[in-house]
Amino acid sequence: MSLLNKIRTRFGSARDRCWRKNNSRALTGALALALLLLFSSMACKPVEATCSTGGYEILQNGVRIVATRTSEDAEAVLEAVKQQYRLEGARILEMKFLGRVTVEPARVRLDDMKNVEEGVRHILNRKTPLLTVWSRQLYSRMRDVCGRTEYPEGFLTFEAQGKIRSESYSGAREYDIVLTMENARVTGRGLSNKKLVLTADVPNGAKGLPFTEDGLVCRTIEFIAPVGLNITCAYGEGRSATGYHMGVDLYHLAGTPIAAAADGIVSQVSGGGSYGNLIVIDHGCNVQTYYAHCQSVSVVAGQRVQAGEWIGTVGSTGRTTGTHLHFEIRLGGATLDPMDYL
Questions:
Q1: Is residue 42 domain-resident?
Q2: For residue 305, what are the β-bridge partners?
Q3: CB 297 within 8 A of CB 312
Q4: What range defines the domain where residue 120 resides?
Q5: Spatial separation of the C-alpha atoms in residues 111 and 114, rounded to whole Å
Q6: Who contacts 205 (Cβ-Cβ below 8 Å, separation ≥6)?
Q7: How far apart are CA 31 and CA 235, in angstroms?
Q8: Cα–Cα distance, 330 to 338 (Å, whole number)
Q9: Do residue 317 and residue 238 come from a single domain?
Q10: Which whole-number Å values give the CA distances from 22 to 7, 26, 60, 89, in the listed order?
Q11: Residue 150 CB: number of other CB atoms within 10 A?
């Protein structure tokens, strides 16, 4: 073999050596790139997840609570959180978040954005929810009432004869329960709009409130009309400003005399507020009558009055749209329909 062939055999041609050198560099570069991509995928989140874009934040006192893609989603999250604390069958009087809760535009990472369902879970699914909902919620309740009037021996000479509406009656006691809550925790409760409405089962034409001891009549209270019965607003009618009407409005010109509806002691004389000039008479047995919007008052607290005695005059003081007497009968703090007893 010639010397040239031996050299070619041992070292290859110059062309072959060049190809091997370049190919090795290419393989090394490809391997380095592959390793770089592998480590990048292991160490970093997807590019899309780490990008920031326009979104909305729910903030409480300036601190982010949750982020959403749109303002509509943020408002839906807040509304859904409120609904979690709405009591079944209750009417919402007021509901709001404690603290300053706002929805503001912001730059938000895509992986931080939540849809409505996720946002609600993020706020609620923890020992102490991130937001506190304060609310006042009202329940209306009704309890059936029934009773029977028993007559004592010698009733024919008893002063209550002819003053009792019937031997038996039925009806309902209505009242509202107002609950004050922070989330699901009740922080306060109260009763309002108490009403006791009784209907005689067998009316006999007489009117009056009977009171018994051990099932026997011991006393009755009979009422006379404090003014002529020119009714402009009946008991129970809805009032847009004040709600349920607790008495009866009787129209008369200003200055018309007002009579005490029954014997009793004046327990209150006051002015101001929605009742205006007000007279309250206590008739015993936890029964009171109210005379509101008076123009003038002719009695003082502690004074004893008799049925028919002049106690003041019709006016339009307080919250009223015209001259009239607002008249109430209350039993144990609950209002009765005055027209059942006049």
A1: no
A2: 264
A3: yes
A4: 49-131
A5: 8
A6: none
A7: 93
A8: 9
A9: yes
A10: 22, 6, 63, 82
A11: 13
